[in-house]
Write a structure and sequence with these properties.
The structure is a single chain. With 379 residues, the protein is of the alpha/beta class. It has 10 helices and 14 strands. It has 2 domains: 276 residues, Glycosidases (TIM Barrel), CATH 3.20.20; 95 residues, Chitinase A, domain 3, CATH 3.10.50. Helices cover 25% and strands 20% of the residues. The protein has an 8-stranded parallel beta barrel with strand order 1-2-4-5-6-7-8-14, surrounded by 4 helices. A 5-stranded antiparallel sheet has the order 10-9-13-12-11. Helix 3 crosses helix 4 and helix 9 runs parallel beside helix 10. The longest helix is centred in the first third of the chain and has 18 residues. Keywords: Hydrolase. One of its GO terms (molecular function) is chitin binding. It holds the Pfam family Glyco_hydro_18.
Length: 379
């Protein structure tokens, strides 16, 4: 599977006509959000007028059109929607009608997260994981559900059980879902104690306190619960997180680089000012994120995606991800580049995974990231 999420709220900047369809065989429109009523979902935050044209263009290009259900801010009512047998049946009907209304090929459930509070306003129950499975089993057996591609976006750690522990057996999900997409990104960010990789390929080679999750550890964990490799898609990011890092912390041995005392080598896991989040690109804004194109437009990278002149950089061999640092603005960004995507593509191929899914379709620059991962996998 070669897929990505298409963020409907970015359609004015990245219209459907800008999608390079030949790079994908599946595309997911993000998001239809849950509502207080089990009888409805809403596209209100994702430009609903764009979805029909998205589906039509996908089908004209031989690409499967899915819609993501939920998302970070749209998962508030999953727990209540699936909390009883009557609600599960009602929600199955809601989704069946939605699929037929928009002529969809499938749905990708992005519940963030079963049994865990995430965005802050979610309904949460210890029975979330078992209720989710019961719903999927019911929906898969409906006349509409039988024909659909059904997927789920999942965190790097498997779902919690009713006791709040990591589930040991999720094989039931593997029987009703075509695949899961592991969201291997946002591993480090503004909430962390130090600058770290946004989307590490591996982390067992990192210092213990910085082993916060990675593609390799996540795949191993999900496989141990009963998911075969060929039902696992690796989520890869087209964006990175920015941090305000003092020059005295940014370089190895705390040098003052402008006075010529530095080897110009960036330090690993430097501290940052948690009270001074840098502004991101036009899409990242106050969240401080930079799309790959934003790093180029912002002067961190050149047109080929390499560090621009005057920008310090470091490639972390453990996580297989780079960092760039602008000493003038004291902004450091952890992101994925072509080498990161190539390494992840090789991992996907070598381990027999189902494919990749990029967040998001509009984040690349002249297909530099997509070309790297597709070539590495062999698409």
């Amino acid at each position: 599977i070669a897929t990505a999420w298409y963020a409907g709220w970015h359609a004015s900047d990245f219209p459907v006509s800008s999608i390079n369809w030949k790079n994908y065989n599946t595309l997911v429109y993000a998001f239809a959000e849950t509502t207080p009523s089990v009888n409805s979902i809403t596209l209100e935050g994702s430009d609903p007028d764009v979805l029909p044209g998205f589906v039509s263009a996908a089908h004209q290009n031989g690409v499967s059109a899915l819609v993501g259900i939920g998302g970070w801010s749209g998962s508030a009512y999953f727990s209540s929607d699936l909390g009883s047998a009557d609600n599960r049946t009602a929600f199955a009907n809601t989704l069946s009608n939605f699929v037929q209304q928009y002529n969809l090929d499938g749905l990708s459930f992005d519940w963030e997260y079963p049994g865990v509070q995430a965005a802050g306003q979610n309904v949460v129950s210890p029975m979330d994981t078992s209720n989710f499975l019961a719903f999927l089993q019911e929906f898969r057996n409906t006349p509409v559900g039988k024909k659909l591609i059904l997927a789920a976006s999942v965190p790097v750690s498997p779902f919690r059980d009713a006791q709040g522990n990591t589930s040991k057996d999720l094989s039931g999900f593997a029987k009703v879902l075509n695949y899961i997409t592991i969201m291997d990104y946002d591993i480090f960010g503004s909430w962390s104690s130090a600058v770290g990789p946004n989307a590490p390929l591996a982390d067992s080679c990192a210092p213990t306190q910085y082993q916060q999750g990675s593609a390799t550890s996540a795949v191993n964990k999900w496989m141990s619960t009963g998911f075969p490799a060929n039902q696992i898609v690796l989520g890869v990011p087209s964006y990175g997180h920015s941090y305000r890092v003092k020059s005295s912390d940014a370089f190895v041995n705390n040098p003052t680089s402008k006075l010529g005392l530095s080897s110009n080598e960036l330090a690993a896991y430097p501290p940052f000012d948690q009270n001074d989040q840098p502004e991101g690109d036009a899409w990242g804004g106050s969240a401080g994120t930079f799309e790959f194109w934003g790093l180029i437009k912002g002067g961190f990278l050149d047109e080929q995606g390499a560090p621009a002149q005057g920008i310090y950089s470091r490639f972390d061999s453990c996580s297989q991800t780079p960092y760039v640092y602008n000493e003038d603005s004291q902004v450091m960004v952890s992101y994925d580049d072509r080498a990161s995507f190539s390494a992840k593509g090789a991992y996907i191929k070598q381990n027999g995974l189902r494919g990749f899914s990029m967040w998001e379709a509009g984040g690349d620059y002249q297909n530099l990231l997509l070309d790297a991962i597709r070539l590495s996998i062999g698409f």
